[in-house]
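Homework help board

Subject: predicted structure for assignment chain

Our instructor gave us this sequence and asked us to write out the predicted structure in token form, then describe one feature. I got the tokens but I'm not sure how to describe them. Can anyone check?
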Amino acid sequence: MMQIAAVDAVLRALADPTRRAVFERLARSDELNVAALTRASGVTQGAVSQHLKLLKHAGLVVERPQGRNVFYCARPDGLSPLFDWLVHYDSFWRDRFADLRGLLKEIDP
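My token output:
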């Protein structure tokens, strides 16, 4: 059964372009701390921290404290609720493509 709250959290987290950029940067790296993410983001460290908090709440990142630093890494399996939700539309698109294929064959036999 699909968890609508989880889908909402993932969609809300990825709706913001800055948050999406932070997630994508983490997905391309092993792990980064807030300072490294701030340097590349063009926003304040406080804003990056808030974005990370929402990404963590959505299950898209995990944190690892080390001394005074906290390192973050992407958790791609956090996208699973979104993939599961999209699977419900697979048959919709499959049917539409089948209809399009039939129409194209009628137009150009």
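Reply (TA_rk): Your tokens look well-formed. For the description, you could write something like this. The chain has a mean pLDDT of 89. That's the kind of observation they're looking for.
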